[in-house]
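Late entry, written up from scratch paper. The run itself happened at the end of the previous shift, but nothing got recorded in the book at the time, so transcribing now.
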Amino acid sequence: MPITDYSLLKGDPQPGSVSGRNPHFRIPVNAGSDAFTIDVNVESFDGSEVLYAILQDTAPPNAAKLLALPDGVNPPDGIALDYVRTTIDGKPMITRAAMKPLPIGNKHDMTDQVASVVNQAIEDENGLIYAFGSFFRDSSSEAGIHDIHMNQGNPAGSFEQDNGVNQDGALFVYLPASDKWISVFIAFQTESWDTDSDGNPVG
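Output as recorded:
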């Protein structure tokens, strides 16, 4: 069963902070008169080691379509991401080999790396952030995007229900002043990159 409400958020990022027992880096985003939050996994735990890649000067697929979108939450029609299947100019958007593992425990996290990317967008007067993932609205009516990571290839267990294709999460930052893109991809070591048409691991 795929993740719920797969969506894309576009907006103006604000300085973020870490919160939660399972630490996430929370990025406030202004989108016109609306405010949202992006929740990014930044810490590894036993059994689900984080893999990540932060690619400088790397445009996302369908960059022109992203720029043309209105601010706020959008359906990712025709621009959904799939770590296994999406290509850019005939090459994979991201590969497992391009990602590196985050050490487990001992306060190792990627907060500084994500904050650095967000800060570049903040420093650019017209900088934008794009977040692909699952839309949420909690009991306090706070809304935003989470599951900003690969959402397929999970083995049997508590996360296999999230498996699906064309529903992976990622962050993209656009810096108009330098016409530059920065891409952030996150996955878990337990996820397989060999998946079937339902996003389940093959074999």
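The longest strand covers residues 128-137.
(Scratch paper discarded after transcription.)
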